[in-house]
Design a protein that fits this description.
Number of domains: 3
Low-confidence stretches: 1-10, 433-440
GO molecular function: diguanylate cyclase activity
InterPro entries: CheY-like_superfamily, Diguanylate_Cyclase, GGDEF_dom, Nucleotide_cyclase, Rev_trsase/Diguanyl_cyclase, Sig_transdc_resp-reg_receiver
EC number: 2.7.7.65
Protein name: diguanylate cyclase
Bound molecules: guanosine-5'-triphosphate
Structural class: alpha/beta
Number of helices: 15
Helix content: 40-55%
CATH architecture of the largest domain: 2-Layer Sandwich
Catalytic activity: 2 GTP = 3',3'-c-di-GMP + 2 diphosphate
CATH class of the largest domain: Alpha Beta
Strand content: 15-25%
Radius of gyration: 28 Å
CATH superfamily of the largest domain: Reverse transcriptase/Diguanylate cyclase domain
Largest sheet: 5 strands, parallel
Number of strands: 17
């Protein structure tokens, strides 16, 4: 099952801090940019106005994962500024007041992520986007597939500069092994001409297991004729880059493709997950549940409807926000109680469902009883020093020969019986006949 809550994974290595170092001699620009990053991304920004202060901010600390710097500082010229920040190994974005041919040439020779003209419309928005992209890249794996060590090293070093966790493969077979071993890889950059398996064949293999919305693939070739580009795209590449690519284009295409994956992930979350609790929603429960149901039948399974008791009273006496906290706490308890093979969901309001494959009879009764008891023992902090206690009623139905909907209908009937007989209890339908309650 997919993880229930999309908590950001830890950044495996490199620069683990989440702060940005902003080095600029314009107080107003630095204030505007750091406020925008703080408000929109929630990332801390250290603002300094000289190279000496920047050295001090970075000394002995790995708080920063990214540097934005101007090239005009009171205590250093452009070469000294670039030389120092490049030597730190941190991703570097130059934020310049001017961008002429001389600066462009100087920067092209340097391993920097990007150069942004600061006084243009939209520059703050672009820099905020850059900060977000580079921060997120740290949790994304990228694989470079190329039989040329030099081409591989060039693409890999660029991707590392953008913060990705980079793996390399010299041929298609090794690439397939690398992808199978690391589910964190979301971006593949593959050459065309390679011994054993060419790039398009590799993509055909990859697409059997990795859809376009989960893995972005960019084809690369020096012989990027129109038919070859079309073949790449038709066989599943998300994009194509002609060799030799410019650093600027490489960054734009890579970023656009991983942005698209993020966007699709967000839309999928909105469509399948309950906004308040992060649990699968009702529709997603039926999609996943229908797939699980047939496979689980041989070993038996049970489904439970779980409803918070007197929930209206919690809302009425503590307010709607407190009610939301109570719903989240119960959702969390249900998700924590669920085993890896279970499927929990929020069905709406204060009602939850838990589908438990492999459980029936007394084992199912004990399993849901321990969930009920765990929730009864909880104290939900309301964030203002107060806390609230709550209970749930649970209706359980085993597989009695109908479909999943029939099980849910019977679990709902058992829930009604649990409510009617005093709440804070589990009622379970009999195995033989789903219409006779068997557990008091
Ligand atoms: N805070 C909050 N309240 C919600 C949400 N969804 C539904 N509710 C409220 O939940 C309450 C549900 O109340 P009922 O279904 O009547 O439950 P009850 O009568 O209090 O309790 P039982 O009879 O024990 O089920 C209503 O007042 C809804 O407005 C939500 O997302 N957040």
């Amino acid at each position: 099952m997919q993880p229930l809550f999309r908590t950001p994974a830890a950044v495996p290595d490199g620069h683990p801090g989440d702060a940005i170092l902003l080095v600029d001699n314009s107080r107003s620009f630095a204030a505007m940019l750091s406020a925008s990053i703080g408000e929109r991304l929630g990332l801390p920004v250290t603002v300094v106005a000289s190279l000496a202060e920047a050295r001090q901010a970075l000394a002995g600390s790995d708080r920063h994962f990214l540097v934005f710097t101007g090239l005009v500082l009171a205590d250093a010229d452009a070469d000294a500024i670039l030389g120092f920040f490049v030597s730190t190994g941190l991703p570097l974005v130059v934020v310049s007041g001017a961008y002429d041919d001389a600066i462009r040439q100087k920067l092209q020779a340097q391993p920097i992520v990007d150069c942004v003209l600061k006084d243009t419309p939209g520059s703050i928005d672009y820099l905020v986007w850059l900060a977000q992209r580079l921060e997120r890249n740290r949790r994304i794996g990228a694989l470079v597939v190329d039989d040329s060590p030099a081409a591989r090293a060039l693409a890999s070093s660029r991707l590392r500069l953008y913060g990705f966790q980079v793996a390399e493969a010299a041929n298609g077979a090794d690439a397939l092994l690398a992808i199978a071993a690391d589910p964190g890889i979301r971006l593949v950059i593959t050459d065309y001409e390679m011994p054993g398996m060419h790039g398009i064949e590799l993509i055909r293999h990859l697409r059997r297991t990795h859809a376009r919305d989960r893995l972005a693939i960019i084809g690369v070739s020096g012989s990027g004729t129109a038919p070859l580009v079309a073949q790449f795209l038709k066989h599943g590449a998300n994009d194509f880059l002609h060799k030799p690519w410019s650093g600027e284009e490489f960054f734009c295409r890579v970023s656009q493709n991983v942005d698209n994956l993020d966007l699709i992930g967000t839309l999928q979350d909105l469509a399948t997950r309950d906004f308040l609790t992060g649990l699968p929603n009702r529709r997603h429960f039926f999609d996943l549940g229908a797939k699980m149901f047939e496979g689980a039948r041989a070993r038996g399974l049970s489904v439970a409807m779980i409803d918070i008791d007197h929930f209206k009273h919690i809302n009425d006496s503590h307010g709607h926000d407190a009610g939301d906290l109570a719903i989240k706490a119960v959702a969390n308890a249900v998700a924590q109680h669920a085993r890896g093979q279970d499927l929990p969901a929020r069905f709406g309001g204060e009602e939850f469902v838990l589908l438990a494959p492999g459980l029936r009879g007394d084992a199912a009764a004990a399993y849901f009883e321990s969930l009920r008891a765990g929730i009864e023992a909880m104290s939900v902090p309301l964030g203002d020093g107060r806390s609230v206690r709550l209970t749930v009623s649970i209706g359980v139905c085993p597989d009695v020969g109908g479909g999943l909907s029939a099980m849910l209908a019977e679990a709902d009937r058992q829930l009604y019986v649990a409510k009617a007989s005093g709440r804070n209890r589990v009622k379970q339908a009999a195995e033989t006949s789903a219409r006779e309650p068997s557990m008091a």
